[in-house]
Amino acid sequence: MASIGTGLALTQDELDEMMTTSWNMRVATIGPGTRVNVTPLWFGWAGGAVYFYCRGQKIANLRRNPVCTVLVDRNERFAELQGAMLQGAAEVLETVDDEAADANLDVVRRQMGAKYAGGHGEPAAAAGEAPAPFAASARGRAWRWVRFTPTQVVTWDNHKIGR
What we know:
It is a single chain. This protein is of the alpha+beta class. The protein has a single domain (2-160), classed as Electron Transport, Fmn-binding Protein, Chain A (Pnp Oxidase, Chain A, Roll). The chain is built from four helices and eight strands. It has helices spanning 12-21, 57-64, 96-101, 105-115, and strands spanning 2-3, 25-30, 36-41, 44-46, 49-54, 67-74, 82-93, 144-157. Strands 1, 2, 3, 4, 5, 6, 7 and 8 form an eight-stranded mixed beta sheet that branches. The chain is globular.
């Protein structure tokens, strides 16, 4: 794992915590021509990969060119910024069979069900009840799960500046 400055990198445990508790990520894909398309999305993290469920231009872009960058960051003030920039390639899981063959997708569905319960205004799970998994699946021409596998990870934790 690369870092922006010596000693500023997140540890693997810190990265895992940020990736499983942060609500939003941004994915940058290459659109038609050389246009960059950046979109915020909900996501899951398992097996060192980022998973997201989406449609539209993102899917069209990734089918054409799987190279993309994912950014997850949190906090507003410079001294509190933490983040991870992950560069790599995405694979669109085109069918329900592709989804079933992915060893981590069920983990991600449960993780996202817990993380986003009540996020669209629906009721969250009652106390003591397990939230429903994020059960979305491939449908129509466009709605698909995407597994993004990073080949380069750059992290930072500005809390560590001056330590």
